[in-house]
Structures
1.
Amino acid sequence: MIPPVQRRLLLVFAHPDDESVFAAGLACMTVAEGGRVALCTATPGDKGKVGDPPVCPRERLGAVRQAEVMAACATLGIGTVRVLGYPDRGLAFAPTDTIRRQLVEIIRAARPHVVVTFDPNGSNLHPDHVAISRFTSDAVAAAGDGRWFPELGAAHAVGRLLWTLPVRPWDVMRRTDPALEPGADFVLDVSAFAERKMAALLAHRTQMQSLNRIFFSKPDVTRLLGVEMFRQAFGPPLVARPAADVFAEIVPTSEPRFHDPLSRTGSAAVRRS
Ligand SMILES: [Zn+2]
């Protein structure tokens, strides 16, 4: 088991506010136990809503939303935030090689035990959500193989990749016991962090219309904010579903060294040491 103070979590999402909607409680819980959390957001969300009344002119929305995600992360204790700056609603067309390289660099720097991203259907079929899901899977695979981008540091094998649920978690909580929902492989009680999650959501001032619709207009908002759910894409087999600890059963391994950086031939020899 990885001691809580050594745990590292990386969230990879498409827009400012995705992190607070889907994984704020997990981030808070990880930080509260002494671990570290990093966030990569692929777009500044500049095609989103500007607020009603508008918080800013549309041409400033990208900059304002970047400031909002920084404020939300400060609230959640997320220590590292990177906004890649791909076009909002255009992420699917990001050059594959470029974004793979960027994400591999982030993964090898953060060296997360657990990575969280959207499920392959992007939770709500938003094309940017779908795109970041596949780019993240691609990069997680590449990051663990030292033949990719050896100049970006030692390969890092992620222990567990988590997706958001195939359906929206707040809908699951309305209609059934989350434990019975297929895909709810991890059901986390984050009620101790509901207030912090609420503060992070409120930092996304430009997005209050949709956040009101999802959370704040609901009489059971505190209950909705107190549970988060994730689906296991890959990782150690789960003894029981749903599980409650996303770091469970991950064995920290010595770094794989499929590439010998001293070799001038570039052969993929395995070094034994
Ligand atoms: Zn989004």
Note: The chain has a mean pLDDT of 92.
2.
Amino acid sequence: MGRSHSLSSPAAYGLSAAAPRYSLPAIALHWLMAALLLAQIAIGLYMVGLPKRTPAVAYYYGLHKSLGLLAFMLVMVRLWWRGRALAPRGDGLHFSALQEKAAQVSHRLLYACMVLIPLAGYLASSFGKHPVRFFGYALPQTGWENPLLQAFFRQFHAALAWLLCALIAVHVLAVARHLLTSGGLVLRRMLPHIER
Ligand code: HEM
């Protein structure tokens, strides 16, 4: 007996519910990183506007640095994982050469930002007055007090954070576009399979 599928369902594109997806660890890492990056952008923008030398500044800067270092560790795990476990097959997905290239370039830039932003933030802090703490644990001081280098890495950190915002917007818009044209196949690859 034939089954009818709504045009927005992946089955309408010849794909079963068990279609290739990213592995569970890759999916978990992706959404954890997404949440961390958005939280970091929000905390970063909020804390730079706080009045200097207040307990709130110390608290939010400390939180921002700790979560940023955590994000750096997670992106290292993600890159290592990506090098071993490849992206799932693209069954049922049809991308033009231009779309493939755009996705590849934007993903590489996203990874570059995820690595360079925490590094620049760490360097800015290590050329400042306050030692970097990871959730209360003081890390060895790797720099020395140097206002010029601190200002340089701060600017670099902020500029890359804005680039990251633009890349996240492009990324979300691309997924939304696929949602309309391919029944959400692209998004489903990054969601866990739930048996019904
Ligand atoms: C994924 C990681 C991170 C993201 C997305 C991020 C994002 C941001 C953003 C959006 C700002 C505000 C920039 C501005 O408009 O001036 C900021 C500021 C800052 N971030 Fe990060 N950050 C990250 C990691 C880190 C890390 C690991 C450190 C240090 C260990 C750090 C240290 C700082 C400092 C010191 C500032 C304040 C700069 C200033 O006072 O001008 N960040 N960050």
Note: The chain has one domain: 22-188.
3.
Amino acid sequence: MSMNKIKVTVNNKVYEKEVDSRTLLVDFIREKLGLTGTHIGCDTTNCGACTILLDGKPVKSCTVLAVQANGKTITTIEGLSHGKELHPLQKAFLDKNGLQCGYCTAGMIMMAHWLIRKNPEATRDEIREAISGNICRCTGYDSIVDSIQEAARSMIPEEEEEMVTKQRGR
Ligand code: FES
Ligand code: FES
């Protein structure tokens, strides 16, 4: 076993931890940090349940080693809400029936978050393409696309969100 010290910022909090060089990022997030909102569906890069944002870009965290995240910024589903106040994406998934069992939901939402930031006016086709690496066994996808479009309509621009976040002291 080869241990390495890594420093990562996860949901605005800095962690310094020893990790085995073979530890997957998803296992690090779930087991070392206790952030179990990120799910493991396949462990083989197929399902997207483990999607998180690494330096703002979506990655399947079962395909990245924890040591590769050293010095980087990670956002998981736990980083989206403000206390008990749900993020617009979480609210839209609830309101538009974008989830049933919920297993895929964290990964879907992280992918959708990246898409909306990049393209707030994404069409249904563009949304479908963006989530094409995220598998849902329950919903048939229409309600997920509805949820993402609904959230895009209600999300404030990124610069404004950053200002609100600063004001909240996060
Ligand atoms: S658990 Fe990572 S893609 Fe399925
Ligand atoms: S809601 Fe069950 S897998 Fe997507």
Note: Residues 105-118 form the longest helix (14 residues).
4.
Amino acid sequence: MKHVPVLLRETIDALQLKHGSNIIDCTLGDGGHTEAILKLTIPNGRVLGIDADPESLARAKQFLYSEAERVIFVRENFEHLAKIVSEEKFAPVNGILMDLGWSSPQFEERKRGFSFQNPDEPLDMRYAPHNDMKKASELLADSTEEELEHIFRIYGEERLSKEIAVAIKAYEQGINNTSDLVNIVLAVYRKKLKTDKEVPWVGGLHPATKVFQALRIAVNDEFGVIDRALPQAIEILAPGGRLAVISFHSGEDRIVKHYFKSLDKKTIRIITKKPIVASEQEAKENTRARSAKLRVVEKIY
Ligand SMILES: C[S@@+](CC[C@H](N)C(=O)[O-])C[C@H]1O[C@@H](n2cnc3c(N)ncnc32)[C@H](O)[C@@H]1O
């Protein structure tokens, strides 16, 4: 399954691409945004394409092969943006894109336990599976009840955070796969709602939705990465260059919004007073687009 790039036209417009622009795609994924960027920067515009996931990078290389000489592929965490740019001597930087989170093939096909809908997958959830970060199963085993409650509440806005954390810690067999975790969450909800329905849906959501989202964010320290990467992005942008960030979680969007607002108005112009969201048509065609928010700033000097 190919990832469908979200807010594609809006992002491309926001970056104000010109022939010869040098753009950094911090989250290359399947290369959908980069493909459009390459088209609009012909003949000599370049893209520095970063992704932490070796499988994403391999797929993007294949997909973009006809323009590969204009792309530098880097397998890294974009929290090291400044170092990557300096090592690759990529300058001037005319635009930067961060399209946060996961891509569809990661979610659906890579068997890393991102989705509660895929039974019996190992609970890994790392974007970069070969690094020394903890897998989700290790995080569950090593965290205290209070730490788990915090993760579910802050990153998932899960209303049964406490009850779920207690149930996880009481589960002595060890939680290794997606089904183990889903079953624990379902049992907590059944007890709370006093129902014996197999899946007690909550406001149209499967009860495990928020727990899985929260764990993924914690495993990859997603909020911390954005926090650390945004100042580097502003620093390396050339005058007139733009930074576009697409987020899918209210907590993420808050970090971006507050950071943009905190910047000196003599150096930065906020282009999106309100975030750009998907059109009705896009939201209808792509469920992932429904929660997307695009914020853009321009560096003045
Ligand atoms: C939403 S997808 C990007 C999709 C892409 N724009 C496209 O059109 O195909 C996000 C990608 O960012 C990568 N990613 C997430 N966090 C990352 C990080 N901290 N450093 C590097 N890559 C990351 C994921 O592995 C995933 O491939």
Note: Strands lie at 22-25, 46-51, 71-75, 93-99, 237-247, 268-270, 293-299.
